[in-house]
Write a structure and sequence with these properties.
The complex is a heterodimer. Chain A is an alpha+beta fold. Chain A is built from five helices and 16 strands. Chain A folds into three domains: 45 residues, RNA polymerase II/Efflux pump adaptor protein, barrel-sandwich hybrid domain (OB fold (Dihydrolipoamide Acetyltransferase, E2P), Beta Barrel), CATH 2.40.50.100; 79 residues, Nucleic acid-binding proteins (OB fold (Dihydrolipoamide Acetyltransferase, E2P)), CATH 2.40.50; 84 residues, K Homology domain, type 1 (Ribosomal Protein S8, Chain: A, domain 1, 2-Layer Sandwich). A five-stranded mixed beta barrel of chain A has the order 8-9-10-12-11. In chain A, strands 1-6-7-3 form a four-stranded mixed sheet, with no helix packed on it. In chain A, helix 3 packs parallel to helix 5. By secondary structure, chain B is an alpha+beta fold. The termini of chain B are far apart. In chain B, 30% of the residues lie in helices and 30% in strands. The longest helix of chain B has 38 residues. The chains are: A alpha+beta, B alpha+beta. At the A-B interface, loops of A face strand 5 and helix 4 of B. Chain A: It is found in: Cytoplasm. Chain A: InterPro entries: Exosome_RNA_bind1/RRP40/RRP4 (IPR026699), KH_dom_type_1 (IPR004088), KH_dom_type_1_sf (IPR036612), NA-bd_OB-fold (IPR012340), Rrp4 (IPR023474), RRP4_N (IPR054371), S1_domain (IPR003029), S1_RRP4 (IPR048565). Chain A: Its main location: cytoplasm. Chain A: It comes from Pyrobaculum ferrireducens.
């Protein structure tokens, strides 16, 4: 049984449902009832409700794609900053497909401090020394050699992607590779670096004006304008 | 005991014109410090507290971090210009250090620190104007700032004070009643869970007066809680629209 309505704003301690219902997100159980842990919105899905927080740092979930910076080279892997309050760990076994002899090969030959990686969260275990384990053995992840990284607040990532990817598909029309990390870092790579600058300002604009009506249409118009300018060689 | 300059209670009306069970005007706004991850400003009458939360972030120095939970640090401070007569020295006094600890212990039961291992959460509370009940105003402000920062909380903690003036139980002490009253009972209350996180008491109270005061405190906290919800709502309805569009 649910005590909330779709899109309702909820606060810490508010009752959401009885424990026989399906509730996901930042909630806890008290006295046979799900209560919220955050200020958030209630979203109704087919198989239960999800609490979407409206503020906060990035909290990693298994399966998230993140953009991170290498901050340390350790004995058997790398420490990666993924904009969370805890450091993430990328073990050698998850970074390379082949076996390496750690005694003869320094790890810096693969990744060094300051390098950018797009990685997938393999596991989150808060009891570990490094609670976040990353992997590069997936599709569309790996070390980043070129391109630009733009940072936005993690709570606005859903807006940047849009309903069923509508906003992201609009941005793709410029003809670039875009990967949105769930941690609020967006990686862009274009053939022309001027396109990257254009896209970066556009993403910042989406972050700042995400509440203004008809944003997707205006962004689409701006991209069209830019494309014609580019064809005429004006940009 | 010193005699107050004005009678504290006359014909059931307090020196500032309030009824015994009446709060001063409560004003709350959320998100007032743009540099912080979360912030709130709370006024009970002229008493004004600003709270700012930073974190969770990695603990430095690292040896002070805990492997299974986060560390919360609270700093309560009164601005030099916050007091009525003499300027307060900006150095933290014994009293301020104690209140910092009291606030931390009143907030800890509400916060899921086990969700933030090896990290820290810093809470700064600044009293801009002090006119009694500063510790409970700080508690409300700090818990709202923590909620604004998106930190996992079981419930908001609302602070209210109750006092004993001329044998009568009164809600929300002002500076005068705090100074010349017979008793003081600051309370931290979680309105959803109906549990207390802070209960201090001084003065001589009868059992009846204490129970009456506790009931009054719960009523006062529920009144403040509604205003706190409205303040959060004001900020977050616009953000909800931002994320999902209209």
């Amino acid at each position: 049984m649910y005590f909330v309505t779709p899109r309702q704003l909820i606060f810490p301690g508010d009752v959401i449902a009885t424990t026989d219902s399906k509730v996901e997100g930042p909630v806890y159980v008290d006295n046979g009832r799900y209560r919220s842990l955050v200020v958030g919105l209630v979203e109704f899905r087919e198989d239960g409700v999800v609490v979407v927080p409206l503020e906060g740092t990035y909290k990693p979930k298994k399966g998230d794609v993140v953009v991170g910076y290498v901050t340390d080279v350790l004995a058997t892997g790398w420490e990666i900053d993924v904009r969370s309050f805890m450091p993430a760990y990328l073990p050698v076994s998850e970074a390379l497909h082949r076996h390496v002899d750690l005694e003869t090969t320094p790890l810096t030959t693969f990744l060094n401090i300051g390098d950018v990686v797009i990685a997938k969260v393999k596991d989150v275990d808060l009891t570990d020394e490094y609670p976040i384990i990353l992997t590069l053995k997936e599709e569309r992840v790996g070390k980043v050699e070129s391109g630009t990284v733009v940072e936005i607040t993690p709570v606005k990532v859903p807006r940047l992607i849009g309903k069923r990817g509508s906003m992201l598909n609009t941005l793709m029309e410029v003809g670039c590779d875009i990967i949105v990390g769930q941690n609020g870092r967006v990686w862009i790579r274009c053939r022309d670096t001027r396109d990257e600058v254009f896209l970066a300002t556009l993403i910042k604009k989406i972050e700042a004006e995400s509440h203004v009506m008809g944003l997707t249409d205006r962004i689409r118009a701006e991209i069209e304008k830019y494309k014609t300018q580019r064809q005429q060689g004006a940009v | 005991m010193k005699k107050p300059p004005v009678p504290l209670l006359q014909n059931g009306v307090r020196a500032d014109g309030r009824a015994p069970d009446q709060m001063r005007e409560v004003k709350i706004s959320v998100g007032v410090v743009s540099n912080a991850d979360g912030s709130a400003m709370v006024s009970y009458g002229t008493t004004t507290a600003v709270a700012a939360v930073y974190g969770p972030r990695e603990m430095h120095p690292r040896h002070l971090s805990l492997p299974d939970r986060g560390v919360m640090r609270v700093r309560y401070h009164m601005a030099p210009f916050s007091t009525k007569d003499e300027r307060k020295s900006p150095t933290p006094s014994r009293r301020e250090i104690e209140i910092s600890k009291v606030l931390r212990e009143a907030l800890e039961p509400a916060i899921m620190l086990e969700q933030y291992p090896r990290s820290r959460i810093d809470v700064f509370v600044e009293i801009l104007q002090a006119d009694g009940s500063t510790r409970v105003a700080s508690l409300t402000a700090a818990s709202l700032a923590l909620a604004d920062a998106g930190i996992y909380m079981r419930d908001l903690v609302i602070g209210v004070s109750v006092g004993l003036v001329d044998g009568t139980v009164v809600l929300d002490l002002n500076g005068l009643e705090d100074q010349y009253g017979e008793g003081d009972l600051p309370v931290g209350y979680m309105p959803n869970l109906k549990r207390f996180t802070l209960l201090q008491l001084d003065g001589a109270w009868t059992r009846e007066a204490f129970l009456q005061a506790l009931n009054l405190a719960v009523r006062g906290a529920e009144h403040v809680y509604q205003i706190a919800r409205d303040a959060l709502k004001t900020k977050y309805t616009s953000i909800a629209e931002e994320i999902y569009g209209r």
